[in-house]
Amino acid sequence: MNVQLNNFNSKREAILNSTLLLVKEYGFHGAPMSQIAKHANVAAGTIYHYFDSKETLIVELYIRTKDQLAEAILEGYDESKSYKDRFFRFMINQYNFYIKNESAMVFLEQYINSPFAKNFPEKDSVLFKEKVIAFFQAGIDGEYFKKIDPRLLGPTIRGTLVAAANFRLSEHMIYSEEDITEVVQIVWDGIKRQ
Amino acid sequence: MNVQLNNFNSKREAILNSTLLLVKEYGFHGAPMSQIAKHANVAAGTIYHYFDSKETLIVELYIRTKDQLAEAILEGYDESKSYKDRFFRFMINQYNFYIKNESAMVFLEQYINSPFAKNFPEKDSVLFKEKVIAFFQAGIDGEYFKKIDPRLLGPTIRGTLVAAANFRLSEHMIYSEEDITEVVQIVWDGIKRQ
DNA sequence: ATTGTTTAATTGAACGTTCATTCGGTTGCA
DNA sequence: TGCAACCGAATGAACGTTCAATTAAACAAT
Question: What Å value separates CA A102 and C1' C28?
Fold first, then answer.
């Protein structure tokens, strides 16, 4: 298509990636635009060519990161498998994404607990909502799960997976398939119809 | 005892309370010392009479808030009850604390996911560690729970309760005993020995 | 009780720094 | 030649922190 599009994306992506890393390391207030620019090898002014403000930069980074999470979760989706198998695949994918992208996980957690999330509740990943949350809804409708509000189910699952991923990461442990399955089993046992 | 002690504490407490509220509302970077001072009805300089820096103010607020959480969790502790009953009491207490102290919950979650927590891992509530975490350890030792590392168990439980409290708070719903028990049941079903 | 003395608490303007953002100018591609 | 991408010094606002000055409290001596 367009060569310029590559340039456009490469600088833009570099800015987003640097923001993710620096926010993870130093928090929102500890990641100034000047440092983000330096880390991304662009001029400070260039950031404002792609983003209106620091605020929109953060919000767009959130959407992009959650899109990536949704894509990772959906990887290897197989309609022919049982609901439980698909659920475990979802959970293991999410767990692995967190392990492999610690900065993404930390950023997402920081964002969710920050004023941003409350100020822009409509700014979110469409893919995540339409595929991942819909899958959980199907689990409730299909009576695999307890009758819980799906908006409660999502954060509950996230909480456990984040806890597990944080633990593994802080211990610098190599994670085996059993480790992951054990954690997912906690989630499943908690929410399944007894 | 000492009249001065009252004054000492009242200003200090006012500063801590204002910080909690403003950090919850605007985040760490959105809560400047000048605003904290104004909200607490003290001069900017007064804050530095009680705290070395903004950083130590935040850290000391974290410890105080987690102490308060620990006290709330331990309320009505009855050694004669069964382990499961005591566990449910712990969980319901924690859930209620979150519901009644939204700013404390939000602050704790923000803190845990911020660089502060990684930079000062030794700065934490002694009460929480010696009573609450010890209780979970006893649950593992006593074979009520799956064989999980207690450092994994804690955040897992927290994740679910925070998710539930956030949900209830965002929906402005009146919480009934059944609501709470339903959530705790999720946690219990997840981690108990099957 | 009163007065003088010392110490602690409190103030808020001032300081130096850092920050997000701007903008006039430059480059490089179409 | 035109236009979007890009630069980076400049700007002004906002920030955390300091400090000289003021007030209040505690204590001691009378």
Answer: 38
* Type of residue numbered B53: S
- Tell me the CA distances in angstroms from B151 to A167, B51, B133, one per residue in order: 7, 31, 8
Contact A189 B190 (CB under 8 A): yes
pLDDT in tens, B65-101: 999 999 999 999 999 999 999 999 999 999 999 999 9
Q: Name residues whose C-beta falls within 8 Å of residue B99's C-beta, 6 or more positions apart in sequence.
A: B165, B168, B169, B175
Q: Tokens 């994306």 map to which residue?
A: A9
The per-residue DSSP string of chain B comes to --HHHHHHHHHHHHHHHHHHHHHHHH-STT--HHHHHHHHTS-HHHHHHH-SSHHHHHHHHHHHHHHHHHHHHHTT--TTS-HHHHHHHHHHHHHHHHHH-HHHHHHHHHHHTSHHHHH-TT-S-HHIIIIIIHHHHHHHHTTSB-S--HHHHHHHHHHHHHHHHHHHHHHTPPPPHHHHHHHHHHHHHHHB--
| pTM to 2 decimal places | 0.90
Given a cut of 90, whether residue B29 has pLDDT beyond it is no
pLDDT at residue B153 is higher than 70: yes
Name chain B contacts of A146, Cβ cutoff 8 Å: 182, 186
